[in-house]
Hints:
Elements: H1 2-8, E1 25-33, H2 38-54, E2 56-65, H3 77-90, E3 94-97, H4 103-113, E4 116-119, H5 120-131, H6 135-150, H7 172-211, E5 216-221, H8 227-235, E6 252-258, E7 261-267, H9 277-282, H10 284-291, E8 295-301, H11 306-322, E9 330-335, H12 342-351, E10 356-357, H13 366-379, E11 382-388, H14 394-402, E12 404-410, E13 415-421, H15 423-438
Parallel strand pairs: 1-2, 1-3, 3-4, 5-7, 5-8, 8-9, 9-10
Antiparallel strand pairs: 6-7, 11-13, 12-13
Amino acid sequence: MGEIQRTYRGSAVRPEEELTRNGPERALVIASLAREGDEQDDRLRELEELLRTAGAEVVETLVQHRDRPMPRTYLGTGKLEELKDLVERLKPDLVAAEGSLSPGQQRALEDRLKTRVVDRTAVILDIFAQHARSAEGKLQVELAQLEYSYARQEGLWQHLERLGGGVGTRGPGESQLESDRRLVRNRMATLRRRLRDVARSRETQRERRIGSPIPRIALAGYTNAGKSSLMNALSGADVSVDDALFETLDPTTRKLTCDGHDVLLSDTVGFIRHLPHQLVKAFSATLEEARDADLILHVADASEPESRRDARAAAVAEVLEEIGAADVPRLLVLNKVDLVAPDDRTALRFRHPDAVQVSAVTREGLDDLSSRLADAARARLTTLDVTIPYADSGLIAAVYADGSEVTQEATEEGVRVHALMPAAAAARIRATLNGARTG
């Protein structure tokens, strides 16, 4: 969990610069939750999966049931003592909080436990750092990490706080802290400039995409729902499909032909409950594929319990709204139906009659999904029904070049052509014919 270590350097207890170990890091999970039940189990299971993806294994979990975490120490006094005993006995490499920790809560826990403490955001940042491949993705991750850790810089020089300010206390501690902060601010400013340059280039490409007559389809869904596997099954792309959260961060777009119609299919970063705002902002390059799409394929895991699937669907809807994609038409794709019993599939069909049930592994349902994508492509096309004089028969080749579902019939006046075409291409054909008639 190297990136967690780098983020952690801005907190109260500094880890060793180099860690040599056999096997994954050992994590002790803590949580302050309002109540027990399926939601608690799902949140703890999700954090455990996040930690596994980041390279750590959970050795123990400690939960306190409160309406809200303690403002200063996250856990109450009794649970904090219990946690301290667990840390001394199990000697974990880190303590991971299920929710978000304020800088003060993180420092208070580290002071008490004398071990590294991270929160859910830090774990997600660590995973993003591992999985970013493109130059832009790496810049976005670094900026998100610096923004996250900036408020935690004070803890790095906590041993010099007595020299922090006031009569008789001024000294190197204040100047060192300010020096570190200035370095971080300068680096963040540099990253923002570089990302603005990349964004300008990407905007040009985006305008070209939007101007294209080919419809844009975006895959979106909760992380690890099988979006990338579905992308590969539909397009033959080679998107990474490891069983890990946030495996896809950089956008991947492929051109498909569905029932004779071309579409552009884009994979996006997996969503997650309470995705940190700075990560939504940082990965706008990937997420805008959903915002600018003509249709969003909301990929959900059909094999999950219904309550969990509903909660994750709500999380996806929340992120789509945050990025401005709430009004984009959506088609629910229930993936992994090969893991669902026949009776449960029937129940899913009744509950989601408009959804498409597929399996990226067995390829079941992919023909049905391709037909639905072809329908989306047809919806963007206009109908061309014209008679082309025999003297202008060269226009027929233009219709075949830009159109689909082309039929033709010989008449006395010429060849009657019927086709589905992009509006601009159809307008050109009509204008040419009108010009020929007036000429």
